[in-house]
Amino acid sequence: MPDHQGKRLRGIAERLSSAWMSLQENMVRKAILIAFADAGQGPSVEALTHALGLPLAAVRAACRTLAGADLILGQDEKRAISSAYPFSGCQTAHEVLLGGHTTRYAMCAIDALGMPLMLGQEARIRSTCFFCQTPVTVDIAGGVLQGGIRL
Description:
By secondary structure, the chain is an alpha+beta fold. It is built from six helices and eight strands; from the N terminus they run αααααβββββαβββ.
């Protein structure tokens, strides 16, 4: 198996712990996640530079570290970051309706389940079974699964 595929199969917790991020790199990572939570899409490197008050070279270097650890995808100076686990900047099969009014998309079903807990919000998750394509709906409130899973 090629190395890049092996990296993608590791869980987010393992990727985070093995990334050995500096405080500045972690600050950039958190700013990216906040941008996804707030706007539903990733910021550009330039937008991060302005938001964090950091030099462009430092933000570029942080994004290279994050991309190398498979924590973000699709960054360069002119484009927005296309995903940052657990967020996807484009529509996926894993829709998370936060607080009853804000739709975000997750990279996978497990990421969708973690998103409301990470953000401290109630959510309705609509996903599709990878194997049989059956729609699945899950409600989370107070960090707890509500009423079971609806198929």
